[in-house]
Amino acid sequence: MTSSIIKRTSLLAALLLTTPALAGAPSSASASAAACTQLKEELVKHAQEQGINLNQEQISTLASDEATIAATNIAGFENIPDTEYAKGVDVAFVYIDSPEAGVPAGHYRVNVQANPEDIKVGRYTATATLFDKDGKEVAKRATRVETFGTPLKSAAYGSPLRVGLQQQTINDWNIQRFRGTVTLIMVRPWGVLVLDLFNSYTEVFYGW
Q1: What is the rounded average pLDDT for all residues in the chain?
Q2: Spatial contact of 143 and 119, defined as CB atoms under 8 Å apart
Q3: What's the rounded Cα separation, in Å, for the pair 111 and 85?
């Protein structure tokens, strides 16, 4: 069991940090492209209505029977040092539509905050809060951060700042039941942020 978890964790880490965002493909490729385009346009529109400036070229989408997701980072996030997590940082803007997510379908601003004493070079936990268009707190989500001692070079992970979406199914130790998870991965020069949009068991799935 332990060996299986380690292998799966290593494989997923490689996927999340080295591949483009994944999207479930409907029966028609043209329909899929149109749906992704619409998701991106609506994400930008709703962000603009809230006065939020997005990195539009970083928008990623996921569309499947289990979830419809669109997400990107908020412009300027790449310039904020990880020490600012102590105050809380608006990191992303997302659209979520999935029963597994535990939140109403809609667009959300994501703010990440960590305890000052936890922030360090290395891995630590933080909390992401989802806010709706009215500024109302809708949910909190588990978040993992890894801060690097020296900034990444572009060649190390491809683009030093991007968003990736990965959909997986994990066993919650009850053989009879599995739960899907969608994670938002943000890679930038100072580190990596992994946000679990479904609030699944990240400590088991990722091994940290």
Answers
A1: 78
A2: no
A3: 9
Segments making up each domain of the chain, as ranges: 2-205
Q: What is the pLDDT of residues 17-58, one digit of tens each?
A: 333 333 443 445 676 788 888 999 999 999 999 999 999 998
> How high is the pLDDT of residue 179?
60
Residue 72: pLDDT band with limits 50, 70, 90: very high
Checking 145-148 for CB contacts under 8 A at 24+ apart, the result is: 145/82, 145/85, 145/112, 145/114, 145/191, 145/192, 145/193, 145/194, 146/122, 146/191, 146/192, 147/82, 147/119, 147/120, 147/121, 147/122, 147/190, 147/191, 148/121, 148/189, 148/190, 148/191
Q: Which residue has the tokens 């994501």?
A: 110
Place of tokens 């999207």: 23
Encode pLDDT of 148-158 as tens digits: 988 877 545 55
**86, 114 in Cβ contact below 8 A?**
yes
Contact of 100 with 67, CB cutoff 8 Å? yes
Give this prediction's pTM: 0.78
64 residue type, one letter: S
Is the alpha carbon torsion for 14, 16, 18, 20 positive or negative? Answer: positive
